[in-house]
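If your schedule permits, I should be very grateful for your opinion on a structural question. Kindly check, if you would, that the fold set down in the tokens agrees with what the sequence suggests. Thank you for your consideration; the sequence and its tokens are set out here:
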Amino acid sequence: MRRYSACLRPRGRGHGVTEAALPIRVVALYKFTPLRDLDAIRDALDRRCHAEDIKGTLLLADEGINGTIAGADDAIEQVLGDIRGLPGCADLEIKDSRAKAPPFLRMKVRIKREIVTMGKADVDPLRGTGHYVAPEDWNALIDDPDTIVIDTRNDYEVAVGTFAGAINPCTRSFRDFPSWFEAHREMLEGEGGRRPKIAMFCTGGIRCEKSTAFLKSEGLDEVYHLKGGILAYLETIPSDQSRWQGDCFVFDERVTVGHGLQPGDYVLCRACRMPVGPEERASPFYVSGISCPACHADRTDAQRERYAERERQVRLAEARGEAHVGAAIADRDPD
């Protein structure tokens, strides 16, 4: 793997609990397939999810479906059955993990322009993506000194964990990736007509479907991506053989997962919605529900007072055994 400096350094790995203690099934899924009559699909999935007490987010677009849902095992199977009944979704692949408590507080089924937003309407993964690399073969690819490894996720995700030596594009949004590519095209195209291998990865694989399709549309052919994403790698590869450093950010209330997809040791700052690790929680600037070292200086006293009241209401709701929507994770689209 070619070595490059990263703008954010991954932090330590957390420790989870055993899977036997985790009763909630969490399923991440996506499928690029032409869908029509999105309103009807949305309404049907919304009814099914609410009937089965499923929580999470499903995104629909003309190009397919993407999302993460959580609930009881049998209920999840009912929803997956409906999704697999959609055009082109019979072979839907999923990534399973477990949680000790529901990682979402509500269910959202939304229609969007893209199921993962790059902002390039002419990029279609159905016309061709990079070469898929199984988790078992990933180490050999990224250990190759002629391979450039790129983390296609955003800066706050990379800060929690990444593959050793991977490039961090330092993007705030996936929309920024095409601009980053243009700025670094010469490096990626190689020198003297010899093009390096480009290995790309993301959380569950969906961003790499588009990023590798984009690079291929720009004339690069030696493009590879991790099949099933980081989640598949962490589920498959033993920690003593792993090239992964840190945790993997996920778009739900678990915040991060580690090897074996065990929940990590991060929490979410309710003020700025960024992941907060053990070191940051030891800071005097971290106050649960109110601030963290990343946002303390950017918040006014009036804002902190509002956050404190929200936190008080959340704790009162917990004491009553109720969920408080003010405690919900930031409204980010899943990968």
User: Anything to note?
Assistant: The first strand starts at residue 24 and ends at 32. The chain has a mean pLDDT of 89. DSSP finds ten helices and 15 strands in the chain. The two ends are 25 Å apart (CA to CA).
